[in-house]
Fold these 2 entries.
Entry 1:
Amino acid sequence: MSIASRRALLALIAETERNGDAAALPFYATPAAEVSAFAARYDLDLSFLNLIMTFATGDVGFWRQVVEALPPGADGRIAAARWIEWLWTDAETGLRNRVGDAVLRASGDRVCDLQRRAAAGEDVARSDWRQVRIRLASRDGGDDVQAAAIEGLPRQPGTLAARLAQRPT
């Protein structure tokens, strides 16, 4: 995200906070074409934007926290990969330890691996992503994973900022 795009997005967030109209920011029900246009307008990686939309659930303050935590000029794809990996593997709040189903756990590991590879610039085949989606869609327990994901959200802005600033290993 460029510095100018970051400033513009923070201005939109501030305006949204003043007006109390969270609809100015995309959320899970926003049509894909609008999400893509928003990502292009604000120079956001689509995977990073999808993470924000998923976890913000209409909370404009969360948007502010994430955008402020992203270092100027940071690669959103790398930030998304680090965020996903942290949400999945963190020793204290990671979702992996909360998921009892071995297939769901293996799928989560695979998602982290695919994100890491894509963030490093490797060309990951669409079929690899599709396989993980199919495997996840065929499993029960999605509500448990979603609940664990919400519990695993960072409670302190510094923690999120530190994770977003890390580079993939």
Entry 2:
Amino acid sequence: MNPLILNKYLSFVGNLFLLNCLYLLVNLPMVLMILFFPASLATLIFFLLPALLITPATVALFATCGRWQREKQINVLKDFFHDYRQNFKLAFTYGMLAWGLFFILIIDALWLLNSKNFLLLIFIVILLALAIMMYLLQCGIIGRFTVNFKSLLRVGIYGVIRYFPKLFFSASCLIILLAILAVAPAFGVAIGFSAVGYFIMTYLRPVLEKLEEEFIQ
């Protein structure tokens, strides 16, 4: 193999590995909860507090991956923490709303599953899928644009309706992450989160560019 091509691939994988480590580092409370605290319907509420840090981390991950795709070269450490600090306040505030909604829908889905009320369960699962799609888009928006909370919610709802297919494929990347963690957990922990974040931004980037054009107009 050409040494330049090999170096390019090694650099790509190295950036993914470092970015993945940073993402796990800022989500350390959740990582520790998953490792040492048994997850069940009764204990689910205790995961809510560490989950609030996931949104600022995800915003930073998406922002760094988006810059990487646009500019081709990044300083992973510098760019990630710059995006994390710059967007933390709005990301954390939005994360409280988003994760509160996720937990309500998940608890409802588990209760309906135990009750064998499959009709309402399907409805809740659809709502959860739409909420996840909107969440991914809004994390991308926070990392790319300067917006206030009200505009973020409005553009998020509009984006899901206007660009549903691309957001659907973006959300489907999360299934890939779950599959990686189930089949090859070591590989998933090493670069799974950053790799999936990179692929999600592959789908989100055109949507963000379209929203930027519409916003300017």
